[in-house]
Amino acid sequence: MATQRRTPGSQTSLREANRARIVDAIKKHGGLTQVELAGATGLSPATVSNIVKELSSSGVLHTAQSIRSGRRAQHVTLAHALGLVVGVHFSTRHLRVALSDVANTVVAENHMPLAKDHRADNELDKVSMLLSDMLESVEASRDEVLAVGIALPAPLDRASGTIARSGIMRGWDGVVVAEAMERRVKRPVFVDNAANLAALAESRLGAGRGKRTSITLDVGDGIGAGLLLNGQLFRGNNGVAGEFGHTTIRENGPLCRCGNRGCLEAIAGGPAILDELRDHLGSLKLGDVVLQAMAGDARCIRAIADAGKHIGIATANLCNLLDPERVVVGGELARAGELLLGPMRHAVERSIIVNEDLMPDIVQGQLGPRAATLGAVAYAVDCVSLTPGGAGM
Fold first, then answer.
1. Could you tell me which of 377, 373, 381, 383 has the C-alpha nearest to residue 153?
2. CA–CA distances in Å: residue 193 to residues 80, 102, 320
């Protein structure tokens, strides 16, 4: 049987693929030793060493001496000088923008409130102006921006690039957000659901690190879920997986903003909690309810506990379907800590089918209100090529 020879072209393709595997592993983990890189990529230590030297010389990677298990090791990260990326998070009432290098070092950040039912054109204009100011503050130009990631608190139709259900974000219906933002900033723009991007950030930088299958809940005015399955974000066939807040938990229950009745969000989301407490607190915001509860207000404690119970019942259903290692709870309501998590755990324990020793951990997120923004930064880095000859180089 004749021995098949590799052509020079196939050798080149293999090397390019190996370079991409190493860069992708560093994007995912933030930084690894060469030994860890070999384990993460399945490449031999010699191959990793040669490619790291090559990419360090070309300015893609940065190496530094570190100590692991008592031994000296080369720690490999993306080079800071590769360029900048932008992460943008639109929530229902807030806007946060972060300017970062590709090694996840945020160099400028801005945050401001938004009006209720804000319009896409106004807010995208605002982001463009903020970005100009932030770039000026770090003496950088827009040409140095490789990509912009945007997190939206709504399901996105992957095919059309628009919000998948009208009415969830009034003022944004029918807008192809990536195209609209690209016209303003003249840079590549990538858009995803905020819960997905919060899950991405928590899995790489926060409470989900080291877990290959986890659920990240974003609990605030809305309720969303980011699903990390076998180390990959799961977005579903149309890109709208994880609309946890619009699962029906009470038939013929209260009307939800999506148009259905009895959704979890309509019963345990921020507006439902505020409505329940209006006669007690007046027109306060959800953050004020959390502060009042933490200060000992019995009505606020009860409202958060009731929300935790409903969210816990729905979470048990999700755990029975997906069998995650960990459930990370983020969003504005998660600031209440055990006032929310305790009732959630109790509801999950009563409804989950596995034994207590197999239950997933239910923990508070570590990234707070910045989670989706940092996820948008990570998503922007993921979407550009950083190897020689690729986009952004």
1. 373
2. 27, 21, 23
